[in-house]
Fold this protein.
Amino acid sequence: EDGTIQLLWVIFTNPAVSLPNRSRAVKLLKQVFLVVQDPFLSETAELARAASRYYVCRQAPGRSGAEAESR
């Protein structure tokens, strides 16, 4: 509330609805440069200045990351 935090990067969570005092959380989220990384367009992502729909991909068992990417 005193402006100490200027940027907040939220990954795979939705603090706009999960924090106990929702109205205060939303007010504070609007005060910072908010970046959200989540596969869903959550309430927090709607407040963000930058949002990325990041998906977690599972690679095939026994294959390295380089082999999986070369397909």
Notes: The chain has a mean pLDDT of 81.
